[in-house]
Amino acid sequence: MSTATVAELTEVAAPEPFWTRQRRLGLGLIIFGGLAAVLFGALAPSEAARFTLSEDAEGAALSINGQFGAILFGVLTVAAGGVLFAGLAKRRQTLLLTLGILSFVLSFLCWQVAGKFLPLVDTSSGTLQLALPLILGALAGVLGERSGVVNVAIEGQFLMGAFAGALVGTMAGSVWAGLISAAVGGVIIAAILAVLAIRYLVDQVVVGMVLNLFALGITGFLYERLMQPDAAGYNTPPQMPTWSVPGLSDIPVIGPVLFQANLLVWVALLLVVVIHFGLTRTRWGLRTRAVGEHPTAADTVGVRVRGLRYMNVLLGGVVAGLGGAYFTLVATGSFSKNMTAGAGFIALAALIFGRYSPFGALGAALFFGFAQKLATYLSAVGSPVPSQFLNMLPYVATIIAVAGLVGRVRAPAADGLPYIKG
Amino acid sequence: MTVHQARNRRQEIPLKLELRGITKRFGDLVANDHIDLTVEPGEVHALLGENGAGKSTLMNQLYGLLQPDEGQIVVDDEPKVFRSPRDAIAAGIGMVHQHFMLVPVFTVAENIALGHEEVRGGPLGWLDRRRSRRDVIETSQRYGLPVDPDALIEDLPVGAQQRVEIVKALTRDVDLLILDEPTAVLTPQETEELLTVMRSLTDMGKSIVFITHKLKEVKSIADRITVIRRGKVVGTASPQTSEDELASLMVGRAVNLEVTKAPAEPGRNVLKISGLVVDDDRGTHAVQGLDVVVRAGEVLGIAGVQGNGQEELVEAIMGLRPVRAGTVELDNEDLSGMSTKQILRSGVGYIPEDRSHDGVVKEFTVAENLVLDMYDRAPYGNAFKLNPAKVAESATERIAQFDIRCQGPETAVGTLSGGNQQKVVVAREMSRPLRLFVASQPTRGVDVGSIEFIHGRIIHERDQGTAVLVVSSELDEVVGLADRVAVMYRGRILAVVSPDTPREEIGLLMAGITGGEEESK
């Protein structure tokens, strides 16, 4: 035998550019944290900021001096940023980033809440309620996009769901009939999307946008012609009842938030778990992911690519339609023109921010829900920040989240590409 | 489950396949014209033909991906209709595609299980991962094809991916395996290993259809050879037939397999690359501190298994991919940081690897494609307008000069054959005054006639004093064209050797094996 050897090649340490993503994020946190410590600290009155466990100002509460808290959490943000910037965080990047952002938010809250109180239960359950359609919408997106069909029509599915839910719910006098119709409404939009995208290979983003406009137009028209003249007959749907689980609902904070809620909350949370395990652990999930990543490979082993895509898009329609039901059967009690106001797009953002995974989508949706809840709370307690800016909060949070924090999200490889055999 | 029934029915009974009068048309083009083919049980049947002869089309029909317009597929004397690969697999036919059908982000076990997953009961079909893993290990041991069930496909080298593909087919209990150009991406040693595997599979009663255009491999492994030219069977041959005979059968005339060229007269250093580091799309270093020099009047060939950074190297030279570290100098002028347009205009010609995406605009005419580089320069036009008369005139000239077979300058390039499309690229890139010519896979998917022509033009360009860099995954091509052969392995040049070096030695280098230990001992 000759003494041939496999060439031992040491990896070349190419000069890393100084401004890595980690450094940039770190610097961002340092700047924002510093601003928070100085600005919020200076503006905050030196009074107690109370985070109460009950609904009113009395009772058990976590209390902290507003000025002290604003500065403390600002400094914490700077510290998290500093660790990131120094490159000390190897694998804990996400954790530190979350910590930094959380501290920043807390610093802001200490300033705003100083001398007042923030009811934790109300804030949490409000966050969950506001996040509800976003969770469902983002899950609809997960179903479609993991199988390779881009769904930007979530907004349209919401609107159709909301409208159908209100109309049928009122006419049948049953909230359950409304709920089912809402799902059907979502499926109608999903079916058009599926046929045009999968069968006729139309650009999926364009179809999605057109469907959004279609849903806006048709629900607006029917609202004006049908619902406005006879609101009692067509637009006063019964509301989803709030059920409480005996025993569990007595747990402080968690109890009233999770176990004293309407069915939709449980459905949404259950779906997160079901879809997560479905995607990772079942035959359906394996095939769905294969079709979204490499449809030709799936086809050559006998997986029906188009059939699976149809199924997933339609299932997504059901889920998004339920998300639409939230608007008329849970939140407001009646349909109004364009009432979803872009929630479908925020759900889309939550989907991407959540890296196309169900739990990621849940986290992102809660984040956006919190931003919305905060905006309402702050304008209610008379924040010095103008209300226009507060109302921008969820959208600004969306932009920062999607553009700044996510970085490069790896979408399924065949996302948005029609499958043509041969 | 139909697959499982079929599996039990035919266990250990070798499969006999007949194709009778298979015809497939795409518009006016007859891709397969009444093809008859019989594969006897336990034989390696080579399907030999040039690129575009219709081999893959034929096999895609056999595998259920396409349906024949006419003709019959007969398995064990029973006519079959395959509507999808599912039907083909059920009938005992498996296929390893030229471009692997593996999901890169899945594990080996997941890829192998896909489509016939082991599941525990229930409507959802809960995956039984343990059984999937066990099946993979069992099959891989039974046929002597080592694969790691838990590895991610994207982390595996091509040779290992190919083993996964073969195991994937074998777990489906197929009796006839179609291998579509399986050696295109392998080193000579890996090719040897594959041939051994093929032999042991036929010993176990499997039949193999081996699609290729490489004559040496056909001669060493095939029991019978069917030659296809332009969609028709033009003959059958035995492995004793000489390479020249096979080649002329395949091409339809006598061909010269050797590249004829005078010894090179190398001059100054034209291209000098030092310490080059380039990232691939995933952000890892695909080229890791590479040094190489190409001199005027010589062809430097880069040999190596695909995916060792050749693509990234070429793209970095052409300014298509950022240089992370190191320098790329053309006559002492640093190219890194220049735009591709500037690089082209400073005297660099370029044949990109992926012709249909990067070489031509398929919807454009031949004439338009020929001026893609110079459309805004005299005489073809200026910053504001084209001069169509000049464009057409020069196109007519170059069509004749470069033997581009087309109806005229106004023909859309997409309608031409691969070889003629490539000649359009060559004609365009060789029409500027050049100092350096970079050719990446210059004859991939090109017919033999065009290969001869393109090789001739490359040598001609060398003789004009241009420095030429040829990158090819076909070792024959590199050795035939090059005056010096640089073997690339994991982002670096492992050695620069003479083209007369024995194949085995180059092959070992391509696998990263150096014989340098002996002196140190």
Automatic annotation (TrEMBL), chain A:
Classification via PANTHER family: GUANOSINE ABC TRANSPORTER PERMEASE PROTEIN NUPQ (PTHR43370:SF1), SUGAR ABC TRANSPORTER INTEGRAL MEMBRANE PROTEIN-RELATED (PTHR43370)
Cell compartment(s), UniProt: Cell membrane
Alphabetized GO MF terms: transmembrane transporter activity
Major localization listed first in the record, in broad terms: membrane
This protein's record includes keyword Methyltransferase: no
Protein's name according to its UniProt entry: ABC transporter permease
Keywords: Cell membrane, Membrane, Transmembrane, Transmembrane helix
Source organism: Actinoplanes aureus
